[in-house]
């Protein structure tokens, strides 16, 4: 049975609800066996997963770009594809979309008793996170870390794993406390490299990255987002190298490293 919402919210009409209902009807028309779209009808939950993931990354890119029109478009595409996947799963017998939405709303209400229930209000975000984890643990008989998806990008998963472990005290005390651990991991990585053991070097490199994620977490820096920013800067600077060499009718393959380093420095300077 759905969890009741307070009366002042239950009676409130939200135009987003009507718009979402219209989108669902569009998707149901596309998936109608008699009059639907041949391409959409051919899709399955397995084939749609790739498109959902692509839309998520396109939304992240739009968010980083900051253009409101792009964000609205990509957010709409993401919602559309997620709902499309939900209807494909409905067709495959996993569960009705209405049941999925009801369960999601019920879960959010249940995990926010300080908003929807009788528990005292919480003004501290960390207290909310602790309460959320406690309620979630009571809902499922899992280990503390088992609910963190294995399919997350590795840096993001490392952040979530250590964040969750930190909630029960398995953590460094502060960012400075992480630094000696990072030094140890770097020493072990150097030793593995010197030994010529590739598997050992790979394991130690992973430990270095894992420790850096922890350092970032203590500094309130998300390693996944930080690396995405570095990737973007690398791409922009390398494009500058290509553009400047193209003015002379050449490609990076026809330039030496010293020249590309000089152009890289120019690109970096132009960024301010």
Concise structural overview:
The chain has 272 residues and is mostly helical.
The proportion of residues in beta strands is under 5%
Fourth CATH level, the homologous superfamily of the largest domain? MazG-like
CATH topology of the largest domain: Helix Hairpins
The span between the termini is: 58 Å
Sketch the major β-sheet. none
Mean pLDDT: 89
Determine the number of helices (DSSP H or I, runs of at least 4 residues): 13
The CATH level-2 architecture of the largest domain is identified as Orthogonal Bundle
What is the number of domains?
3
The percent of residues in helical segments reads over 70%
What's the β-strand tally?
A: 0
Considering the chains and any ligands shown, give keywords for the structure:
single chain; 272 residues; mainly alpha; Helix Hairpins; 3 domains; 13 helices; 0% strand; globular
What are the SSEs and their pairings?
Blueprint: H1 7-10, H2 15-30, H3 38-42, H4 45-65, H5 68-91, H6 97-110, H7 113-116, H8 125-139, H9 154-166, H10 175-195, H11 198-218, H12 223-246, H13 257-270
Helix pairs in contact: 2-5, 4-5, 9-11, 10-11, 12-13
If you had to describe this structure to a student in words, what would you say it looks like?
By secondary structure, this protein is mainly α. It has 3 domains: 7-110, Helix Hairpins, CATH 1.10.287.1080; 154-221, Helix Hairpins; 225-270, no CATH class. It is 72% helix and 0% strand. The chain has 13 helices and no strands. The protein has helices spanning 7-10, 15-30, 38-42, 45-65, 68-91, 97-110, 113-116, 125-139, 154-166, 175-195, 198-218, 223-246, 257-270. The radius of gyration is 25 Å and the shape is globular. It starts with 6 loop residues before the first helix and ends with a helix. The model has no long low-confidence stretch (mean pLDDT 89).
